[in-house]
Amino acid sequence: MQKSLISAALLLVVTSTVGHAGSLRIVNKTRQPIAAVQVSHGRDWGPDHLEGRAIRFGEDRMLRWVSDGKHRLRLINSRQEECVLDGIDFDDGKVLTVTDRVLELCR
Description:
The protein is mainly beta. The protein has one helix at 100-106, and strands at 4-5, 13-16, 24-29, 34-40, 60-63, 70-77, 82-89, 94-99. The longest helix is centred in the last third of the chain and has 7 residues, at 100-106.
């Protein structure tokens, strides 16, 4: 079941760091591993950026080669539960910290 958030900007900690345009660092602060991450530039979802390497609690992963600008991001945990976040900014090497509170709002 797909779950969606209307405004990720209100729910996520997104901060600027020195980095490459078109990149986003995802930090997992949830109890569940993030098993897959997909990006949408429109209607269709792209491939899994994690390529089978889950992001466990306290770990982070850099997504690269995504065009600059705001996109939809789909996080899938090991139980195949989905959380869709809208308006995620891939400019200026942002950091997205995913917390249990964010995932609870997807339910």
